[in-house]
Amino acid sequence: METTQLSNGVTIPMLGFGTYLIDSQDVPAAIQTAFDAGYRHLDCAHIYRNEPAVGAAIKASGIARDDLFVTSKVWNADQGYDKTLAAYDQTLKDLQLDYLDLYLIHWPNEKNFDLTLDTWRALETLYQQKKVRAIGVSNFSQDQLKQVFEMATVKPMVNQIERHPYKVQADLGKFDTDNGIVNEGYSPIGHGHLILEDPVITQLAQKYGKTPAQIVLRWQIDTGFVVFPKSSKPARVKENFEISGFHLTADEIQTINGLDRDEHLNYD
Fold first, then answer.
1. Among 16, 89, 177, 249, which residue carries the largest CB count within 10 Å?
2. Is residue 87 part of a domain?
């Protein structure tokens, strides 16, 4: 699987497995299926309410910790310096890990951004204490990132944002890249049929002998985005991983970019 480097030199797999909305009882089979398919990057979060099950599945897999890249996120209710440190400790306990590879602020606090800045200070502390290999944010705008830049001693290394062919995020994606921030895209295939049935996508799928989902994931990675599709269906989990061996042309990438509707499929 292709990888990219964060600004501090840490290597991150560009294709991961998302754990959002997977019921705890379904986690063991889903995680093992992902590992069997070849995934070694897991995207987790406290608010997903399944981190204890994910931790147990990691332990049961027998895969060496150094072979995994594990991300988690601090939730809104846990923002603030001390609360963030406590939330991190709880996540680490739930996942049964000694450290995280990446820790993110899940959302900016819209009513009290100073609280979010305190949260960032806590992430810097965790990074300086080597309890996490990299730190970043999620769902931050350019203006919010600029406020972090003004006070940060360590700049965010990742910005995880909604991204799919109907929400291309060209301006924010370029801003991130220009500032040494790796883009991650959640909802990478846009929640299913609307995008996967688009004629542009289906025609490219026919050309390359791939599924529409594979085309969209290839577009994501070819444009520099780290992604982590989620599925509890074993065949789909394997299909999403099998996107090596081909690349879209520059013209095809531009054609997919042209599908942009600036359409959020999640909370804005």
1. 16
2. yes
